[in-house]
Amino acid sequence: MEQRITSRKNPLLQQVRRLTTSRKERQEAGLYLGDGIKLLEEAAKWDCGLKTVILADGVEAPPLPGNVEVYRVPVDVMESISPMKAPQGAVFLCRLPEEKPLEVRPGTLILDGIQDPGNLGTILRTADALDVPVILAKGCADPYNWKTVRASMGAVLRTQPVQASGEDILKICKERQIPLAVTALSSKAKDIRQAPISQWAVVIGSEGQGVSQLFLRECTEELIIPMNPKCESLNAAVAATIVLWQMQGK
Q1: If 110 and its partner were Cys, which of 85, 203, 238, 246 is the partner (CB 3.0–4.6 Å)?
Q2: What pTM value is reported for the model?
Q3: What's the pLDDT tens digit per position in 132-150?
Q4: Which of 34, 128, 148, 26 is nearest to 90 (CA)?
């Protein structure tokens, strides 16, 4: 049964606003936010801990699990809680999943300090589509930031992002004898097309700083994506997409 909320000061709506802006709030509450009908459809389809749905007047919800709380609000109230400039009339809350144990296998993409939520979400979406495992080293944006969730187009609802320290990632790579490669603009970097990266773990660095010294010191190989010499670099999400595609090779 739907419940109606008309006050912008309602505690649930105040919590939604905090979850939108604060990673600490998301971690303490054990909840994260999604926005939009398409994402709500994905959340209802997959077992992702969908807890609460808030709908604007006139907006129809997709079929929802029976244990989901549903609230109805006026359009102007929805506009006050949705982080989008043009709200679609649906905001929902999901439970944060329990952390998965760290697992590294050949053909894993490691993200090192990817701080832009849009880039991170795009990479997670592409990795999900190509069925490539991704590990987020410390320093990456929150995969449960609403911008990341939206840019991932539901990938974080289907495939839980794994987060770990760089030290732990390196330890497992060494224990399992998985070669570690980093993307780098250096004279000794190998053409990515000539490297068997489906058998390696590959690190993509941050948008501004590149791969951290921790991974550069411990890597087996440095890789470069060949491009027009007039171009300085690629967007992190674009570079990751090329690496992910190349990982499909044998």
Answers
A1: 203
A2: 0.91
A3: 999 999 889 999 999 999 9
A4: 34
